[in-house]
Structure formats: C-alpha cells, structure tokens
Batch of 4 targets.
Target 1
Amino acid sequence: MKPLRLIIGIVTFTLYTSLAVGQIPFQSDNNTYRITYTSSVNGKTSPNQNRIVVFTNARQTLITNEKDFKGEGKYPLEVSLVNRTNLSQQLYTLLDHANCIATIDSTAIKNQQIELQEGNKKILGYNCKKAKTVVNSNTIEFWYTSDLPVKGAPTVLGQNLGLVLEMIRNGNFVMSADEVKKTAYTNPSRFASIKPRLFDLLSYRDEIWRNRFTTIELFKDQLINFSDTATVKPDVMRFANGTIVVKKVKFPSLADAKTVFLDLQEQSNGDAYDRTGTVFLIPVDKKQSFLDGLKNGVSTLPVFENGNGKKYQGVAATVDYSPAIELMRFFTPFGIKQYNHIQLKGKDWHQVVPYRQDITAYASLLDGKEVYIGVFIGNYDKGGHKINAAITVHRGGDEPPKKVVSLFNTLNIMEMAGQEYATMFDKPEGLTVQFELNEAISSAVLRYTTTGHGGWGNGDEFVPKENTILFDEKTIFKMVPWREDCGSYRLFNPASGNFATGLSSSDLSRSNWCPGTVTNPFVVQLGNLSAGKHTIQVRIPQGAREGSSFSAWNVSGVIVGD
C-alpha cells in the first residue's frame, strides 16, 4: 500500500501537469458512459432546468452540468473529478474566463458511511438496489445498479456503491437518471488553455463563495471618535469632531444583481458605552442636501418646528431638501474588545460585533451611481470606535423598488455639531411632514425605523410607548416598539454595568433596541399613491423631562415603490 502522503503528491502532480495544457484530466476509454439526471421537487419537474451530466468509467467519474459543459453557464463554473484508484476528488472552478482554481479532497468519499437497505426496483431497465446515508440531518436514499461495469453518482455521495441512477433527499427532492449511454468524452470548452491555481479545500471553497457576489468596500479600519487631531484618510471626510465619516462611493451597474446587503463590524477603541449608530445615504436629488449641512454647519439646514419652542434642523423633507436615508440603525455594545480584560466567570467575550442588513429596497439609489454614504456613532471619547463596512451585491431575487422618497429622519446625526435632539414628540402634534409626489407610486411601502431614548428609570428608553402614524389623516400604523431579547447579546458587552439584582444593564429591555444589535424598520403597506400633495404624521407620547434628564425618539421614514 502506498503511503497517503505519496498518493496526495501523485494526485497533485497529475492535477498540475494535466491542466497545464488546458485539459480536465478525465481519461476516456471504450467503456465510458454519459448519464444525465433530471431533478424534481415534490413530484414537479422544471422544464428548463440545468441537468446534471456525469461521465464515468472504471477509473474516473466526472460531474458537471449541461450549461457548464457546453460553455453556456454563468461563472463560477465547477467540475468535479473522482479518481477511483485512491478515492480522491479533484475540484476545478473557473472564476472567470481566465482564472481557474483547483483543490484536492482526499476524504469526501472515504469518510462516507452508507448503509445498504432492503429493496429492489428497475430504473431505465437496469436492476437497482437501495442504500441510505444521513448528511447534516438530511436523509439521502440511493438506488444503484451493478448491471454496468462502472460506478458513479450525480454528486460525490454514493460514488463507490455502483452506478447511482436515483438519489432522494428527505423524500421530496429527487435526482433521476433519464439517459445512460456509451459516449466519447471531450473536455469542457471553457477550461481550454487555463492552468489552475491550487488551494487547500477550505480556501478553495472561500474563493468560490466570494466570487458569487460583488463587494464594494465602504470603510476599512475607520476610527469614529471625538477628536480634531485624528489621522484623515484621503478619500474619507470627517465631520462633527470625527463622530461622522462620509465617503463618495461608485457603484457598478447592478444588472441581474437584485439583492444588496450592508455589513458593518464594530469594536470599541476606548469608548465603554452603548451608543446610537447609523449608516446613511445622502440624497442629492434636490437643491439642498444633508451634505451641505455637514460642510456648512447645522444652522444651514431647513428647520422643523411644532410650537414647543425648539428648532429641529434637517429632520423633515421640504420642497428643496431630502433628509438622510438610513441604510442601517445599529447600537454599539458596552466596550467590546477594548474592555475584554474585564473578567467574569463563565463569560468569554466576543472580539467584534457584526451587523448585517438587507438594503435591497434602496438598490435603485446605488445602481451605476456615485453616492455619498456616511456612518455616525454618537460619542465624546477620544478613542471612540473602530469600524469596517462594505456592501455586497448578489445575483437573483425579486426586482427592487424603482422609486425612493425620503420623508423624515430625526436621528441627530450631527449631535456633536449642535443638531437638536428629537424631542418634538412632547407635543401631541409630534412630527408632521407635508410633501408632494411628482408622479404616482404603485405598491408603495413606508419603511419606518424607531427607537426610544432617555437613559434613566422613567426615560422612554425603558418605558414602552405607542407609536402612531397617520397618512393623509388616516391611521396606518399603531404599535409599541419594544425589545425583550437584549440579554441574548451579553457576550458583546464586557463593560456593561452589573446591578445588585443580578442583572446587567445590557440585559434590560428597551424601546426597540439592544446594545450590540441592528434595529429593523417596520414595513407599512400604503397601496397605490397618487401624484400630488400628501401628509404624514408621527405621534408618540414622549415622557416628561426630569431635571436635566429628557427623552427623545429617533424615527426615520422612507417610501419605496414602483
């Protein structure tokens, strides 16, 4: 018996030498068979599916599909080759027309535990026996034949049974052979003249995964802190003493990429407290924008007043101004990473808090455009917070809304530059915005994000308050936004205060947020909206001020539709 190290070395050498001349190293002979498999779910077969194609003989089995084999599939294209001499699997993937990667899996076949079962049936005239295995809680049944001098299967599973003509997963997903014939083999055309780069198995899979979507980097190792002396990156603008960072980002055409996600990771770089954060996009569709306020001062933004004597800058849409659009509302935990030295028995603190948000509703604002995207974290700490942020664009999904209308955003992003806190809900009128649609919007939806603040016992952060929204004087939304799952995120919060009750501050329920989480928007169906003037009003029974303590509500609202 050859040592395993020698066998792997031989396989690696074969992989390199064969692909150096642009060939998948499948060695065809006079007993090579081609088998095609059709899939069905719950007995229903899609008429235009991309069928699995298998070439197999006594020495090897190659697994591909019709489109990839013909050169008609979309990248990435993968071919799997099973070598029966050592029961190893070689994997080749074209990431694009000139970039091929490869790996060797020496355990995928050898480690299979398959149980032979009672049962017989005929498939395509061949006598078949039954076998079964369980993979990740999925029951896989095989029907295989020994009537032919070859083995093979439509996946890596069951390769050593015989020729598998049918695979059934969990009783409802079926791959059935619909043709078995002797044939000559030719290499897939797209793999011609491309030498692969060899990876270990985990890195190979990671390369394929990352190739399935487009990543647009927003911020990398970006400090958000309260300081005028921080290092300034050439493509990043800092405002409000460094608590806001803004970047102009160029997006490609989204084409068939219909799904968009925003990722952000945060670590404390000195600040120990839970803070309000937001990732926002600045609309520039009107005469004035939020960027003007960032550059020229908060006093230059349009003012909203409701009779309580305060002036709220830049929070409501006007004829000439659109508020910043929230892509993500997030809350930092208490001192993650920076304060992980605080020890509690049984607590193994996380190093970073990840936030991930579906922002497909705003895809039309990004498609092939240059846009201003910013991040704010409210803090007065010189160390502050460190973030990384990126947007990923994925193929598939439903068509995103074509129209986006920003109505209000009371989160005082320019808090550290003097923007007023959102205390306008101390009056029954709350926040009222009058706006005009230049054209009708069908299937309109209001995306409404709300969180209550006031961090003492009677503050609205800890007191449930009903939010009511009226659209054209009709109530369309009425509920109490509240989170009771904050204790789930305790391991993000090493610096959270601990009380005599045995609770931590980060455990406490709050008005629709928790330290270390994203706050999702409420989705309110509006139906079809006509062109012309409309009114939207938000009412919240805001708690009364107690000495220097006061409550505030950060609410944002955007209409999307077609």
Note: DSSP finds five helices and 32 strands in the chain.
Target 2
Amino acid sequence: MYSKETTIALQENTQALLKDTPETLASPDSTEQLRQALRFHEYRYYVLSDPLIADGEYDQLFKLLERTEQAHQDWITKDSPTQRVAKELTGNFVTVQHLVPMLSLDNSYNEADLKDFDRKARQLSKLDTIAYCVEPKFDGGSISLIYENDLLVRGATRGNGVAGDDVTTNVKQIRTLPLSARFSDYGLQQVEIRGEVLMNKNSFKKYNDALVEKGLAPLANPRNAAAGTLRIKDPAEVRRRNLEAFVYHISDYTLLPGKEIPEELTTHAGSLKLLWDLGFRSPVKEMRVFDGIDAVVTYCLEFEDKRDDLPYEIDGMVIKVNDFDLQDQLGMTSHHPRWAMAFKFKARQGTSKLLNVDFQVGRTGSITPVAKIEPVYIGGVTVSSISLFNEDVIREKDLMIGDTVLVERAGDVIPYIVKPLAELRTGTETKIAFPQGCPICASQLFKEEGEAAWRCINIECPAQVVERMIHYVSKNALDIKGFGEANIRKFYELGLLKDIPGIYKLNFEAIGKLEGFGAKSIEKLQEAIQQSKQQPLHRLIFALGIRFVGETTAKVLAQKVSHLLDLRNFSQEALQELEDIGPKVAGSIVDFFSNADNINMLQELEDLGIQLNNSSKEMHGGGQLEGVTFLFTGTLPTLKRSEAEEMAEAKGGKILGGVSAKLNYLVVGEDAGSKLDKAKKLNTVKIISEAEFLKMIAVENNGL
C-alpha cells in the first residue's frame, strides 16, 4: 500500500509532528498531514503487525489531533482517526438490506466432495480444467461493508443473509478496517465488501483471563466473542476487545462515470490483492491459485495440519472459481453459489451426557463447579471434566444433571459446554444444587459484591492449604522439581506435610519407606528443595499465591523492595502508583501483608533459609542490560525459552511480547517462524543466536 519512498517520507513527517502542538498545526492542510501519519501507523500496527513508532508516540500524535480538531471543529473529516470513537448506542440496531444477499456456502468434509464439486463445475462450464483460488475459512462473525466515494458509510451483520443489523459505529472501532480507502483510483464509486470479524487467540486469552480474575464467566470461544461483540451497545467496550477483520470478497460495485472495470476485478485473487493494496487485511498471504482440484485438495489437507499455528481460529478452507466471468456463468442456487465450496476441518464439537457436578476449592477459596461428562473425543483430546466457572453459568445455561450437552474445544482453548440440548430431555434430569457451605471444611460461603464466585474464607481449609502448596512448588513459582501435585497430596494425606514451611522440614526417612521413593529420587527432591531457597524474589512473591498477583505483578513488586517484608509498609495508594496495579490488586496485597499469620509464615521461611532479601540487580534493574529489550523465538539449542528470559531479566533486560520497533534483540533458534520474518523487515532489530546471547550475558560491562 505504501511505497518505500512514501514510508520514509511519512516516517520523517511523523518525527516532525511529534514536536508539534495544536498552535503549530495552524491550517487544515497541516492537520491532514497529521491524519495521514496516524492512518499510516495504524496500518503498520494493525494490518502488518509491524509498527514503526512506539505506542506512546502514537498516543501523543492521536491526542495532538484530538486537541487540534477540538479547537478547529470545522477541520474534522469523516475519515479522521478520531471519528472511530463514539458515544454509547441507545435503542435497538436498525435492520438494513444487503446490496447482494449473503448466501451460505455448500460444505465438503472430504476429498470426494471436493472432486464432485469440481466435476459439476466442469460439466456446467464445459471446461477440462478450472483455476481455483483457495483461502482460509475464518471462524468469526460475518460482516458486510459499504464504501461510497472512498468513505466507509455502513457496516452490517449477516443477519438472515438478506438483511442484517446496522453496526457501523462498532465496525469503526476495528482498527484493521480503514475509514476511507482510495477505491476511486480503480474507478469505483460504491463497493460492497464481505468480511469476517475475529478476536485473535492471544486477545481472546487475555480478555478471558481478565474476566476469570474478576470472578466472571469467560467467553465461550473466539467466534462467539467476535460475533457477540458486534452487537454490544458500548463502542468503548468493543474497542477494548481488540477485534480484527479480514475481508475476502467484493460482492458488488458501481463504476464512476466513464470508467471501465479494472483488471484486478476480473479474478477473485486480483480482488483480494486490490483490497490488500488499499490497506485492508485480506488473505493474500494464505491464498493460492491452482489449476485443477488435485492441488486444491493437497493444500487444504496441509493447511488443516497447521491450523493451530495460526494466531486466529479457522474452521476450514474456501475454494472459489477464480475467474469472475466463469462465476457468473456457473450462477447460484437459492441457497449457495455453484462457484464456491467450503472444505470443513474435523469437528471440534461433540455431544455427551452430563453425569454429575463436583465442587472444587481453589487456593484462594473460590468454589468452582466442574462438570463430569461421559468421555468424548474432541479435537484430538478425550474430554471428561469441564469447568463451569461459577453458579451463574449453571443458571444462565439452565444445565441439569442428565442433560445431553454440546461440548466444544477450539485450538488450545479449554473445553467448554456450549449449551444443553433441552429438546432431548426426558423428564429424568435433576437440578444442580450449589452447596451452601464449603464442600471440604463446611465453612459458610461468601460472595463479594461485584463478583460471581462464591468463596470459602477459612484460610485453614484443607483444600486451600493443599492448593497453595501445589502452586508454591509449581514450575513458574519456585519450580521444585519432583514435588508435583500428586506428591503434595500424598504427603498431606499421610500427615508428612501440613503447610508451606513444612516443605523445608520434611521427614525424608519416613518418605524413604513409601513405595516409589528410592534413595536417588529422595536425593533429587532434597536438592530441588534446597535450590528453591535461592530463587529470585519475584518467583517467591508469585509462589505465595496472593490473590490477583500474577508473574508480571510479582516482578513489579520485587523491583521496589530490598526485603520482602518491606511490602508491609506500602499503603494501597502507594501500590496503585506502581505499573499495572489497580485498586483490586493493591487491596489484595495490603490484606496479605496485614495478616499476622502470613507474616509469621514468611519469617519462618526466612529462618529456614529461604531468600527474602533482594539482589540489587532485581531491585533496581541495574544489570548491564538495563533498558535493552529481548524476544526469544524458535527452539533454542541448550536453553528453555523461560530460562533465557530469566537470564536477560536478571541482567536488567526487558522481555517483549512481539516484534516491534521497540525490540532491540531477537534471539532465534530452530523453526523461528513469522517473528524472524517480521524482524528482518525492521532494520532496527538485531537478530542473534543463543550463543551470541550467552556471550552478551557473560560480559560484565555494558558493551552494547
């Protein structure tokens, strides 16, 4: 979309604009230059995933535009980046008709179906061979977009295929959809485009993690999350969910007076390239054009094998006759076009029977209902237990013991009960009774205002004690190898272990008499326990299982104290001034360090040799790599990725989540993948091997 020369010019202009104020942007022309810069950087960030400026710099430019337009409201344009933001919607969505009906695709599930589709197409067209365009079948919410005179004027849901809901305001929150596009350069006046709104796997996980942390039920899957978000009446919430959109079809267009059909609109592949060049995210990188159906079949099967490697969900491939004239010749039935077919991947849903519901107690006392179902094989895994999250989920879904239920497992997302099949009920089903007291210690349950989860607040509840110890020894906490969940539970049941300090006071003579514990395994366990005493402070903070304190927050806290018990001196207000710590997290930290039992436990741990002091490097970030950013990708020759990240952080380095202009070093191993490709495009990122990284770590002074 942007040539190298244009990119350089826009980047230079960006640096100049970062020095501007609303007073220096003294004309509509200079304000338009600012809008052009923002559109360019939105395209680099949201479409190419390859930003050229820091997030803070983008925010600075955006706020500059907001202030300028506020001072000169007659300078505002309809496609200004500020016009994505809208007030909360009121009333129901208006129903609008699509210019061309959004028909369903005929489905195929095997090679024979695809060959039959090809046979019929060749018979109708009287051709020996047909060229097909193949692309992913995105698993999200379908949308229809209309652009007139280069401006986005309407976005609608699929609805019944003939008409859908007008969701233009929400569509404008999706950063991968430009508010304007130069269709007029191709002689087009009005264009209707089909697309799919998605929530990528990473955004979906982050959003669900946030919901679970608040005690709310997570969203079922990325598809439902995306489709449901389109109809939310709060555009700000739509924006927070970080939706993306792929466009994959131009369904209708009108030409400007005197213009002819452009060459790009003679084939489907050409139309996808046109959309990409105009700044849309279309599947040009994944699409392939093949002569004949055999190569199509091979590509579909290859893509199914790597579907889980994609950052978004797909449920199949779409095969389309590439030539538009031939599409018109083949026509369509009342239900589906004869020139396209969907090849569906193996199902990730199945039905089972809900046999019972167990109620489990977590380390923070939350009561989680867990459905026990008849084992069902879905997506390569046999599923027999499924979390129901909280009582509200049971009630909202109207689940009953004995129900036949629809179960889904998408990618690496946990199994989920989509719904009960109520029409199959026989009358023998029974209601699920949520316990009034803790299922382990019988203590009264409490539900905090604004939370969905019931909680046992008895800190001595055996289930919580065991779960806290399991968390304490886990891999991302103190990583005491050989001391997993099974051993924690066994030692607790036998009376050999009763609390976290007890881990360091184990009777190994008694353990040696247990089946499966020989001299060598005991020696390894003793060594692992001893090594845990020297783990960095942030790991210990995370291991304590303080509610709402994850690994990132633990690192923030560790950098602010010289001794763990210094956190007793932090007020809630002081904690909230730290990075990414809000009122809820701060309150939980204060509660933990105000509890005398917790302080006694920490003092006992210190007496047992656990390191509560902080190294100066962890506290102040004073290593030789302070401020240097790293990202690790691929399989490293000798280190696990987590080990390499810890080594970098121990020297003051910072780990990023993706390739961007903020990244200094990309450390690559085998099968590095897309991160390496992106880094090569950024001249600012230095690509190094594990050996070079280790050499850098070994240097005692900063020679970068």
Note: The chain has 25 helices and 24 strands.
Target 3
Amino acid sequence: MKEHFQLTVADMLKRKHFDNAEVIAGEAGLHRPVKWVHVVEVTSIRNLLNGHELILSTGVAWKDNENLFVSMVKEFLENKVAGLCIEMGTYMSEVPCEVIEIANEHQFPIIVFQKEVPFVEITQDIHSAIINQQYQKISDLENYSQSLNKRLLTIETYEDILQFIFSALDLQIIFRLKNQKYEFVPEIGWNEQNAIIDLIEGVNTLSTDPIVSSPIFLFGQDYAELFIYSKDIPISEFDLLILDRTATALAQHLLRDLYVEEKKRVEEFEWLQGWLEGEHPLEDIHEYLAENGVKAKTNDAAVLITKLIPFKEKSSQDGTYLKLLFRSVFEQNGFTVFFVEKRNEITFILLNNRTKKNLKERIKKAIESIQDSEFIRKQSSVKLIIAAGKFIHSLRDVHKSYQTAKETLRIQQKMTNKQIYHFYEDLHLYRLISQMSKHTDLQELASEYLQPVIQYDQKYNGKLLETLKAYLESNGSKQETSTKLFIVRQTLYHRLQKLENLLGEDFMEHEKRVAIEFMLLVHDYLSAPQPWRENQAR
C-alpha cells in the first residue's frame, strides 16, 4: 500500500480530457491533492469550497476585470483550492501576468485548455476516479486491519507493530511511551531526530501539517503516542485512518503486555512472600536466584521492613521512586535486592554480594545515604521508619530475619527514641519487654514502681517522671540533669526530694535503680500511641 496516495493535480493531467491542456503557472504545485471538482462561473464562492477542489471555469465571471480575477485567485488560495483549469477562447484569450506571478509564487497550478472541452465529462471522469479510489481505500484499510489483527496474535513486541505500519505507509514512524524517549522507525540520524522532536514539542500539529499523532489511552490515562511524519508528500486521510487503526492495535498489545507483567508480578510476589514465610527449600531458592541472573557470593542476608506512615489520614505515597532509590543505594553498597510491597509497607530482602561480612556497617551507610537524599528530605506528607531483622547466614533462614524485622518494627513504633531505623540486635531490653508482654501483665508490674510518681504528676503536674528519666540517664549527676531539663539546681533538689519520698531513699541503689530503669522502658513501651491514632490526632 505504500504507493497508495491521493489523486493529485499531476494525476489529472494524465486523464483523457487533458491531452491538450497546458500548465502555464504554478507547476511546482502539481503535487496538490484533488478531492473534488467544481465548475465555477460566479464570483461569490467562498461558502462553496471545502478545500482541495480542482476548479473548472471559462472565466466568464471575470473576463473584463483583471482585479476581480486576481481577487478570485487569492480567494482560491485562502480556501486551499488544488488548482484552476480555464477554457480559453470563448470568454478569455490570455491570463494576466499578475495572476501568473501570484500562482507561481504560491505554487498554485493554472491549467489552460486552448479549445472547448466538455466540463460535464471531465467532472464525471474525475469524480468516478475519486470515488473508485475511496472504495479502494476502504478495501485496503480493511485488508490492513485484518492483517494487523492476525499479527497481534503472534507479535511479541510493539516494535513489530511499528515496523508493520511503516511497511504499509512508507512514512517516518515515531513512537513514545509516556515519560520515555522517542523511538524512530526506520532509524534516522540524530540531527533529523532532533528536528522532528522539535516539531512535535514546539507546535500544535494539525491534519495538514507534516506530522500528525494519535494518543494511546489505557485505563483512561494517556499512556503513549504514535506519530507519522511526511517531509515531502502531504499526509492523506488514508494515512490518518491507518494511524488510528494502528494506535488501537498498539493499545491492545500494550494492555496485553501490562496484563502479563502484572500476572508475573503477582506470581513473583507470591514466591517472595513464600520465601519470607520459610516455605521454599534451599534448592528452590537457588533455582529462583539463577532464573533472575543472581549468583550470590555468600549466604549472608538480612530483611529490612520500610514503613511509610502518613501524617494525614488520607494522604498516600507512591512507593515506586522509593523502591528505585533503595535498590540503587543498596546495590552500590554490595547487596542484591528483592522487595515485596504491601499497602504502605515495603519489605526488602538484602543478599550480601561481597566477600566481606560487614553487613551492619554497609546497611547503616546505605540507610544514612537514603536519609540524606533529596527525595527523603522533601517528604512532608509521610514519615519513614526502617526496621532491620537479624543477620542470617543461610538463604533458607530468610524467614527468621523477616520475623525479627517485624518484631523490630512493632517495638520501634513504641519506642521514645524516634530515629529513622533500628536493628533487631540493638534492641536488647526492648526485645525482653516485648516477649514478657505476651505472657505477663507488665502494666501492673510497672505500676508497683512508678504509680506514685505518675499519680503525683497527674495531680500536680510536677514533672517528676521526666526528672526521674533524666536523672537516671545522667547517672545521678545533678549538674547534667538540671542542664538537660533547663531548670535551676534548687528546683531539681526539690523534685529529687519528692522522688525520694515517693520511691524511697534507696531508689538510686543498684538493684532498685536497674528495676526502675527497666520499668521506665516498660512504661514508655506500653503508653506509646498506635501510629493510626497518632495520625488521627494530627
């Protein structure tokens, strides 16, 4: 179909009634397409023209008025007429020089018949040719659509579809997935590519421009765009129809690809989730890694859970960039990364890809790089916390690291120390508190030691609990405690006296002090607000 173009003025000159016709002006415009033929013998024709008509006339309407003739030619140009055919001898003997100059300047063909010709027969002949060509276009379009639909069953990539439309139209094809680079079929030089891209991005193209496009929508969203570009030959209606059919086929193919990709993602999610739950034997794990092109240098690994806590109840966060950021940074620090995403939580499986076993130091370095990244610093709608599970030395023990990472996350959300990340191995007493809370009423146990202080604060707002924490953290240093609390020594002495009265004079002796410090941690752990409640309060 690449030779299947519109009928042009040049094609008209090959018809039987044009044997003795002569082009006297605008020969450079013989490529103009002809969509219809009009016989015009009046001067008011603006509302009769739709563009691309070949005008037949004896010139009777302007035979004695050169200015009117010039005005008519300008009106033809404004209405994108294909050309003007004039029968000489009856009313006109010559075409004015000014008309010829205008026609040459605008590449507007003027054809003269030196003797009388049958306008009716010319009209019938050309209209028959145009109508036959329209039927041929419909037939060719149907054949193209059927061939393309058959190919869709076996086509593996959208590049095959781009090649197919190029073979049909023999025009430059440009394709672009949203936010990706332009692709050219066939490939052309960088200078030509940039010129076309400038045309695409610099102007709003119309159907008569050398470049036209068809957007491709998936799920109501602008997903891609297909362009055709013709430098020399005007883009025809047939080209536009082919473009539209091809865009529809591309949408179907891309949708199928998305479906396959989503299905694969679901299967991958299920497999990785099974790995995190300890369901896969070591042989299956090595097979999965091999299929993904991963050759682990060690059996050391760790699981990280990253949680996005929105500051507002209905705020949401796209985790795509976060996953890319994590993958990039951890790969730079010697890890192979797999991840599983559920709601506002992303679980990362980190496989050590270096012979050194300093996992903790490298994970810390990676997290601090992420924390210092521009992306994280700009986040104002969510809070990021990271929980690292225990380090394991066998890939089949990933589930152990996962369980301890979940435990770390639970504990982390109840800690007063609100740093961005914690390691399971650093939690010490908090791990003990977490385990004890499953079997013992820690609230009652903490009350035995702290209830008098808590009740005093509730009644008098004495800030004794805050003072007790600071005093213990300062190892009994009164100067350091008063500095930390921003109070004068006399106020501190008064509070310490109250604490002695409530807790006993021996509250700083070793065993009792250790017990009180432990119960302070228990109190903080039990009284920490749940994340969702915290969000609602804000």
Note: Residues 237-276 form the longest helix (40 residues).
Target 4
Amino acid sequence: MGTAFRSYVPARVEDDRGTSRRTGVSSPLLVAVDDDPDLMRDVERELVNRYASDYRVCCLSSAREALATLEDLAAAGEQVAMVLAGEELAGAPGSALLAEVRALFPHAQRVLLIEWGRLGTAETGDAIFEAISSGRIDHYALRPAPPPDEQFHQAISTSLLRWADAQRRAPYTIDVIGETWSGRAYEMRAVLERCAMPHRFLLAGSDEGRAVVTRAGARRFPAMVMPDGRVLEDPTDLEIAAASGTAVTPDREQYELVIVGGGPAGLSAAVYGASEGLRTLLIDSGGIGGQARSSSSIRNYLGFPRGISGADLARRAYQQAWVFGARFAFMQTATHLARERDGVVVRLNTGGVVVARAVVLATGASYRRLGVEPLEALRGAGVFYGAAASEAPLVAGQDVYVVGGANSAGQAVLHLARYAKRVTLVVRAASLAAGMSHYLIRPIEETPNIDVRTGTEVVGGGGDGWLDHLVLRDRASDELERVGAYALFLMIGARPHTDWLPGTVEQDEDGFILTGPDLSDAAVRAFGRRPLTLETSIPGVFAAGDVRHGSVKRVASAVGAGSIAIQGVHRLLTI
C-alpha cells in the first residue's frame, strides 16, 4: 500500500498483516481523520481501547492523506466499516471528505464528529441536516469525553450494527441454502423477512454454500441453518416461526386482548396492553413489522436522531412486548371474527380459536400486485414486492428499478443506491412531491446514481429464469420503451387486509375499516351507546394503523393509534 498509517492490531487476535487467526480474513477498518492532534488523541484512544480486538483502527491527520489512503485500501480490496471525520478539516467541512467515501466504500458508515458545545445550535443542526439530506454523511457523533464515554460508544456501535446488517454480518444470522433463487427458497426468505430475522441466501452450488452445507450436514433443500447449528430441511412456515411464536389451540383460549396484525400499530397495542396487565395475544399471518419492516432507515421517528431501520424497530418492539408478557402467534391467519355471548371469537386457519374481551384489528395494508404476468412469474428471481432489504446485496453493480411514489419507495431507492450501479425510480405521478416527504426527495435528487422517471409506469418485462428487461410507458405520450433491468422492486398502492372480516364490520369503498365518528347512524344506534374513538361497528373490536379509514400512513401515527386503541380497551372493560 502506498500510504502509511497508524494501525492498531492486538497480537492476541491478529497477526502483523491484520488477518484474524480465527477466520483467516482481514479485519475491517475504522478510519478516523482529524487535523487537531489533541482531538484526534481522544478519538484514537476510545477506538483502540474499545474496538481494536475486532477492527483495525486507522488514524490520519488530514483529508488529503485520508483520501489517498482510502483509495489505496479500496484498490487492495480491504473492508472499511466506518470513517469518522472532524467537523472541520484544514478550514473545509469534514462532510466534504465523507462525501468522497461513498464512491470508494458504499457501505461504510460516515460519521461527522462534533463538539459538545455545538450540540443544539441552529447552525450545526442545519449543517448536519443538510449533509445527511444531500447524502454526504450518514450520522454524527459527539466527540468523546474522558472515559468511560458510553454515549460516544453508543453512537459508534449503532453505526457499526448498521454496517454489519448491510454486510449480512450481524450476529445470529440465519443461512438459507437453496438450489435456485426462486420457488420455495424465495418463500422461505420472505418468511424470515416478515419475521424480521437476520438472514442471508446462498446457492447450494456456490463455494460458500457448499462450505455451509458440509459444515451443517444439510441433505435436502431448501434448508435453513440456524445460528446455533440446527438445520431445518424444507421447513414449513409454521416451523420457521416456531422459535419465536406459539401455536393457538382449538380450545377457545381466553384472553383479555387479542391483536390481529404485527405491524407498528399492532406491536404498539401489544406493548401498551401487556404493560398494563392485560393478558395479550398478537396474531399475524407473517411476522412483525408490517410494511415498516421494509424501510431501511426511518429518520423522522421520534427519539431516533440517527434514524432506525423498520426491521430493527420491529425487533425492539417485539422484545419489549414479550418482556411485558405478550404472547405471539406467527404464520397463523385469522379467518373469522364474531361477537358471541362469552366475548369476541377469532378463528384461525390452523384450527385455533381464541376468545377475547376486546380485539384490535391492525392487519395493515400490502402493496398491490402489478398484474403483468411475465413479471409475476419472476417473483424472487429479480422481481420483489417491498424493499426486500435482504436482496439488496444481490444487485451490486447492476441496473435496478423501483416502482412507487411514497416514502417507503424513497427509502428503498436510497438504500439500493449503495449497492447498485444505477437505480431508477418509476413514479406514476407528475412529481415526487405528490406523495413523498421532502427529507427524502432532496437526497434522491442529489445522489448521482439515482434517476427519477415521473409520469411513467411499468407495463411489461421478462427474462429467462431471472429478470433482464422491463417495458416502460410514458403516460403523457403513450410511448413504450424497453430497458435492461436486473431487478425490480415494487411498492405501489395499498390494499387493506380486510377480506376475511364479516360484513358487519363497516368499511369504506376501498375496504378500509370505519371507526368511531365515521360509523353509520345504523351502527351507532345498534351500540346503545356512543362508539369509542377507534371502535368499529362491532362493539369491543377496534381498528388501528393503516387498515383504518382516514389513517395517516406513517409509522409514528400507527404507533400512536395502537396506544389510543388500548385506551379504548380500558374504557370498554370498565363499562
């Protein structure tokens, strides 16, 4: 390597080349840059003391030296997990250097170091917002104080977890081994995605796939190799979910609260219901997180200034509800709901039956199907519904397309741009502003490998075993264009999951559930009392989240609605 740098590598873990004796693989690097030697000394101390057993720590004194070193590291095929830069380097903003990192190491976390005294100032806040919105940095961290500074390390470890997730290096990652990309192997990946379980996919015939198969002893595919070494050969959805769920029996189990749906609204209801002492069961035909699970970074959610992925938020909420005593039944679909003498009865496709004093419907909505038969035939083989975070590494260096105009599509585009050569966002509307937040529009416009095609829709496409092209239609001119495409991510429209509900649950013309003041006069008269805020036309049954008519399609709104529904449940139980 042409540029020298200070690298700290403990002898007990790695040899003098920075290669781990345990794995034979070079440890990733943490690169820190600051031209103030006193400030760099503090950063260097904290990084070496806390992280040098697993990462090589590289400390540099100028932006020029840092850029040259990073170019050498990229040419050598090294892995850089994080680059930290001082707020100002030789009179220039440190964010300028961090912006250059993206082209060399697309997945490296880029963190701007700021002084404690500048936290909360309008100037610094505006600068950080501008830098994140324009894609020049990922996060910020306060410079370390005298040790132990756990706030500094919380920021660093959070960023490293994001990097590990992107690299599929997160702990407790499940290996899915399949002989083909599509078919049951894809369905298994989709199940794990719905359950927010970290996983990666390996072809059985690949070098890494053969190594995992040999080590685990798998014989029948597709197979799952669990982090503890257990092997599930061609498991059913229920078997996949069994590790984190429970089966509902036909014995009319009694609960005070049953929640149908495990998205943000359902998880919120589970947390608040269980924490307040209600015997609570949450049922979901998939897993946890709903549509929010596909969001790679939710930056406008209260309390997470550095953002949080939808999957991480779902995992945290699940664990929170679980500790409070909520039970979960995954991969089990509610098929019938009715008020009977002893309570509200919910029947499941597995034969299970539960009776509840109150039910919260939080079944959400899913993306509409495109309806192009050749593309539907390629689901899992280049065509994906949702952001499919687990599939993002597969599109490295390729041209991919995203269809959708809401925030979830914007988040997916920015996430995929870290992997793909070029990402094209296809939007039916005339502008992004019609359905997307400003904080997403700005970085989309400024990311060089993202194109936006407004007033356009996908009407065709295909491929031999894997997607290779799409047909786009200009809605104004009706002109058709064939384009090469390696992957297509579809995030269009919203269809509420209400087909299973009885006709006595009032819905609007699009199938969203009516509640409270939106109920018909006939429904209100049948109550004999005023319906509670989120109560449906069936007394004791509430609706929250995206499935409800008039709801705001945002994670924070869904979480708030879940808590409001529990307020209604408490009022109901005292009537």
Note: The first strand starts at residue 6 and ends at 8.
